[in-house]
Amino acid sequence: MITVLSGGTGTPKLLQGLKEIVDPSELTIIVNTLENDYFSGVYVSADIDTVLYTMSDMINDELWYGVKDDTFITHERLEEIGCPELLRIGDVDRATKIQKTQLMEKYGLSKACEIQAKNMGIKSRIIPMSNENSDIKIITDMGELEFHDFLIKYQSEPEVIDVKFSQVKPSEGIIDAIKNSDAVIIGPSNPITSISPILSLDGVREALKETYVIAVSPIIGNDSVSGPASKFMKALGIEVSSVGVASLYEDFLDAFVIDIQDEDKKVKVNQIINKVIITNTIMNNLDAKKNLAEIIINSIP
Ligand code: GDP
Hints:
The chain has a single domain, classed as 3-Layer(aba) Sandwich (Rossmann fold). The protein has 13 helices and 14 strands. It has helices spanning 10-21, 46-55, 73-80, 91-107, 109-119, 147-153, 174-179, 191-199, 204-209, 229-235, 242-249, 266-270, 286-298; strands at 2-6, 27-31, 37-39, 42-44, 125-128, 136-140, 143-146, 160-165, 183-186, 213-216, 219-220, 223-224, 255-259, 275-279. The chain has a seven-stranded parallel sheet with strand order 5-2-1-9-10-13-14, with helices on both faces. It has a three-stranded antiparallel sheet with strand order 7-6-8. A two-stranded antiparallel ribbon has the order 3-4. The relative contact order is 0.15. Bound molecules: guanosine-5'-diphosphate (GDP). Guanosine-5'-diphosphate (GDP) binds next to helix 1.
């Protein structure tokens, strides 16, 4: 059994490779819920939906958001009638979100995800990190911003001063999943807004200490491959590099995968984590995703 901690872009790329080389029924994926909120009357759990679509081969993997070849009739109509949406939600994607909203209000988020995963033919377990809603604020030079306003309305451009999020309860089953796994994989996801929220849940760090944990750096050189991770790390005073990421996971990490371009950082990373693996971590095609997944699986003692 393998557990993966995931956000909504870097780790799903790795999941595409992992599901080709590991029996999907052996995978449990614990997904970040920090950014979940209601938009246009539906509950949007972007990272969970990305993982659902990735595992069912429906994902728009150019954007890492929504369903491939989706239409936007409702989105465009909403704009025409003076009801523009902040998020560009496709029609098929909206149907998933409407169903999830209804299921969630009846059974809670975990059960809603379980039902949807089953309907999509997914054999892996997909568990939201929490059934509670988080409150996240990005403190910027323009004042305190909602996460999606920062990301979409302001295109991650404001200077970030701090990132604050509330503490929520872990959902049922995640501590046991971690403890009962042969390995936990922390994919190359945003360490501040995707992985830290999972790590901050009661009991998660302690459980990770009892399990073999391997992580992939989302930072190559001194920048993130995509998204605002480097801005958030800088704001929190963390070195923007694989060394900085290693320091965040130091207390439980057994092995750390850094990119071939970061060979010069190996000695410094090694002072923090004993086992350092250097390989290509840029997953721009299925072979690269499978290779990285294979290296990770082969490292499990
Ligand atoms: P979010 O929920 O959309 O923010 O997505 P994640 O947290 O899952 O992933 C964002 C992180 O993935 C960013 O920090 C990127 O640097 C990293 N990332 C994206 N693609 C790749 C890749 O191909 N290789 C590596 N090493 N990191 C990646």
